[in-house]
Each structure stands twice: as structure tokens, then as C-alpha cells.
Amino acid sequence: MTLVSNNRSLMPSRRRGKVRARLVERDGNQCFYCGQSFSEHVKPTLDHYVPHSLWRGWRQENLVLACWQCNLAKDDVLPWPLVWLLLAHHQEAPALAA
Ligand SMILES: [Zn+2]
């Protein structure tokens, strides 16, 4: 889980607002994972697509907006689409000679 309220990686609130605006422009005003639209009742959180433990920092390329439920469910693990991509790439690589 990589919520903005996490003390180990707090982003300044002014910057957070700008990043959120850019992410809404890029991905729409909805949860990246489940597609639920954000509203007064469904607040967005900033989530590191590749977990913060593996890719430090706040690069926009690695940030998505997620609802609380999806952010909590994803936890601090790699998302499955990325795992599948890595596995597919690995299977295409030539085998090492013995
Ligand atoms: Zn969601």
C-alpha cells in the first residue's frame, strides 16, 4: 500500500494537488483499477503502480489514481498485468547455454 498519508513517503500537499490534476487529465477522473468514478463519496488516493518499495520517488509515470478499496487490495505488490508482461518477455528470451 502506498497511500499519500504514509509517513515514509509523504508528498507535499501543494504538489499532490498538481499531480492529481495531471493524472485526471491523463487517465480520467476514475480509479485506474476498477474504473469507479471519483465523487464526494469516493475519494481518490495516489498509488504507486510499481510499489514504492521497488521504485522510490514520486514520478508521474509510476503514479495512478485509485480508490481506497483498490489501493488497499493491491497492497505493496506488483500488479498482475505487469507480472504477465515480465513473464511473457522472459519466455521470449533465449535459453542460456549450459
Ligand atoms: Zn478502485
Task: Provide a descriptive summary of the structure in words.
With 98 residues, this protein is mainly alpha-helical. The chain has a single domain, classed as His-Me finger endonuclease fold. It is 36% helix and 8% strand. It has three helices and two strands; from the N terminus they run αββαα. Strands 1-2 form a two-stranded antiparallel ribbon. The longest helix is centred in the first third of the chain and has 15 residues. It is elongated, with a radius of gyration of 16 Å. The protein starts with 12 loop residues before the first helix and ends in a 6-residue tail after the last helix. The model has no long low-confidence stretch (mean pLDDT 82). Bound molecules: zinc ion (ZN). Zinc ion binds next to α2.
Secondary-structure blueprint of this entry?
Blueprint: H1 13-27, E1 45-48, E2 63-66, H2 68-74, H3 80-92
Antiparallel strand pairs: 1-2
The protein binds zinc ion (ZN).
Zinc ion (ZN) binds at residues 31, 33-34, 36, 66-67, 69-70.
Q: What is the CATH C-level name? A: Alpha Beta
The CATH topology label is His-Me finger endonuclease fold
CATH architecture type? 3-Layer(aba) Sandwich
Domain module tally? 1
Q: What is the residue-averaged pLDDT?
A: 82
The largest beta-sheet arranges its strands as: 1-2
The kinds of small molecule bound in this structure are: zinc ion
Terminal CA distance reads 41 Å
**Estimated share of beta-strand residues:** 5-15%
- Please give the radius of gyration in angstroms: 16 Å
Number of helices: 3
| Secondary-structure content class | mainly alpha
Molecular shape:
elongated
Helix content range:
25-40%
Element-level helix/strand string: HEEHH
Pfam families: HNH
Domain HNH nuclease: 18-72
Organism: Streptomyces thermocarboxydovorans
InterPro entries: HNH, HNH_nuc, NA-targeting_endonuclease
